[in-house]
TrEMBL record:
One of its GO terms (biological process) is fatty acid beta-oxidation. Keywords: Acetylation, Fatty acid metabolism, Isomerase, Lipid metabolism, Peroxisome. GO terms for cellular component: mitochondrion; peroxisome. PANTHER family: DELTA(3,5)-DELTA(2,4)-DIENOYL-COA ISOMERASE, MITOCHONDRIAL, ENOYL-COA HYDRATASE. This is Enoyl-CoA hydratase. The lineage of its organism: Eukaryota, Fungi, Dikarya, Ascomycota, Pezizomycotina. Signal peptide: none annotated.
Length: 278
């Protein structure tokens, strides 16, 4: 990671070559977020996105109780949301800017050039859904408890869950069920609707599985992996025809990589290919 960054609210490590592990590190408050944390998260993810020594990012929460319990409500009460101008128009502009900055920070996970594997455990509420729906792969422990909690604090979720969750799972009825009710749902329900792809017996097992998955992804051509993520995200938001056109343009450059020759030769020789940093 860029040497000038010294995270205050996250632990950032490289447990294996080419793999970054980012842990939300506020376990005494169930990893609840306040403004400095999401701004710092963006700095970390942006740095890892272009770091040639990193090919995969694993995102998790420190401590046994929660990935994150969401927004720190006490801290939020001191923000511009409740302490702005008395003029409604000026207050609206300040709130809009605040929300856009927050959205942009969390969306950095989705924009990251590298695949992001999110490991959810314990309480994974509110902002946890915003963050995890930005990730490429989600796995969780059996004790995970999820909820789109915003309606319980008098708001519609506005940092990304309502935009992304309907595209992550296959049932809009289910999305409306959990979003309108703010009810808690567990790991098995999350697996059944496709919100997570795996459920492991514990946080430790989930992290172990994530690291094994990350090791596999890190062994692949970084040109191919980053291109695949980019094209899949584009396909989600565009028509088939638009995506085919974009894929053709993208691969007209990417197919010229030496990684193709290396991958093909290693397949023929039954050897493990080595790819240059990107």
């Amino acid at each position: 990671m860029a040497p000038q960054l010294t995270p205050q609210h996250f632990l950032v490590s490289t447990p294996q070559p080419y793999i970054a592990h980012v842990e939300i590190n506020r376990p005494s408050k169930m990893n609840a977020f306040f403004e400095a944390m999401w701004l710092e998260l963006k700095q970390i993810i942006d740095a890892l996105s272009t770091d040639p020594d990193i090919r995969v990012v694993v995102l998790s929460g420190a401590g046994p109780k929660a990935f994150t319990a969401g927004l720190d409500v006490e801290a939020a009460s001191q923000s511009v949301l409740f302490n702005g101008s008395s003029d409604p128009a000026r207050n609206a502009v300040a709130i809009r800017r605040y929300v856009q900055e927050f959205q942009d920070a969390i969306s950095s996970i989705e924009r990251c050039e590298k695949p992001v594997i999110c490991v959810l455990h314990g309480y994974s509420l509110g902002l946890a859904l915003d963050m995890s729906t930005c990730a490429d792969i989600r796995i969780c422990s059996a004790d995970a408890k999820f909820a789109v909690k915003e309606v319980d604090i008098g708001l519609a979720a506005d940092i990304g869950t309502l935009a992304r969750l309907p595209k992550v799972v296959g049932s809009l009825s289910w999305v409306k069920d959990v979003s309108l009710s703010a009810r808690i749902f567990g790991a098995e329900e999350a697996l059944r609707v496709g919100f997570v792809s795996r459920v492991l017996e514990s946080k430790e097992k989930a992290l172990e599985a994530a690291m094994q998955m990350a090791q596999v992804l890190a062994s692949k051509s970084p040109v191919a992996v980053q291109g695949t993520k980019e094209l899949l995200n584009h396909a989600r938001d565009h028509s088939v025809a638009d995506n085919l056109r974009y894929t053709g343009v993208w691969n007209s450059a990417a197919v010229q990589t030496s990684d193709v020759e290396r991958a093909l030769k290693s397949g023929l020789k039954k050897t493990k290919p080595r790819f240059e940093k990107l």
